[in-house]
Amino acid sequence: MDLSYIVNELGEERENYFNAVAPPIIQTSNFTFKKIDDLRKAFEDEMGGYLYSRGLNPTVDILRKKLAALDGAEDCLVFNNGAAAIFAAILANVKAGDHIVSVAKPYTWVQRMFDVILPRFGVTATYIDGTNTANWEQATKNNTTFYYLESPNSWDFALQDIKAVAALARSKGIVTLIDNSYCTPLYQKPVEMGIDMAMQTATKYIGGHSDTLGGVLSGSHAMMKKIFDSEYLNIGSGIQPFNAWLLIRGLRTLPARIDRITQSTAEVVKFMKVHPKVEAIIFPFDESFPQYDLAKKQMKGACGLFTFLLKTDKMDSIVRFCESLHHIMMAVSWGGHESLVMPKCAGIQPKDFDPVNRQHRYIRMYVGLEDPAYLMADLQQALNKVI
Ligand SMILES: *Cc1c(COP(=O)(O)O)cnc(C)c1O
Fold first, then answer.
1. Global pTM?
2. How far is the CA of 204 from the centre of ligand 1 (A)?
């Protein structure tokens, strides 16, 4: 299916709403019925029609069709944010006594789920260095039922060999979920590589304007129905119609924004890589990246986020650099129009800062839609202040 078709036409029935180009926001909680038989059918299979907006909603459905097609998946569910999508996907697929194998350092709230919430229900998790496929097999126990992948990681961009881990899981009947937020389905389609469920936060690139949250979960229709019938309806973490509408709006320009960000990131990475105040950069499509060959093999592109280390062992210098930026903002998240930095040391007490630990010196940058020359000038003046 053409990307342009998905973004501009798929799922839209314009003749049903005055041939309006932009779809309506069906801002309703419930839907009426004329026949008791029809109402009974809706109770029996809520995924089969419109009953109540905690379940299906027509504006959300337009978005679902587009996002499932983008992922090359049979179906998808859209949640109020990415964390909710991950929570529902895992909760629906583990039970007391089960064991999960996960990449080391997954997204913050995934780690919270594994460390704090699931142990209360008798589910345990083992973190592994997922870059080596043999580690997955080694960590798998008799009661392992779930593999959690994130490729690339959003700080150091560590990758997994997705096809190999998916094949291993399939051979053992283990369910797989991957966080595909960095790549988006434009640059990586994990479901087509054998992964059961692909998740991406729509808050980042799909929304694209830092004005809404959203989370996408794609996979087989059977898996999506299983999650819809229990966790999706029960937790009530589905996306609201207005936010779904904002995400449809974001999708219209997704390919153009990703193209632009890819070009700009390449320019900014090139500038930072040779800058005398920069010790190193970490970016999956840079030849210095330890898994460069795998990145090139399984990803169509890389953009937006990269991490760099300044040539300094002082936290003060990192602080001065970040606080000296005039245009590039300091904030969590990414994927919007605005360029951002996020220093790792913001999450560390100053007394615990250890310059020998490279991770403490990480500064992550997100390259947005501004002119790259404008961004590089801002970086240059802030780098001048690093001593
Ligand atoms: C932001 C993010 C999430 C969570 O998404 P929300 O929409 O903020 O809940 C998950 N994974 C990664 C890699 C993210 O950057």
1. 0.97
2. 8
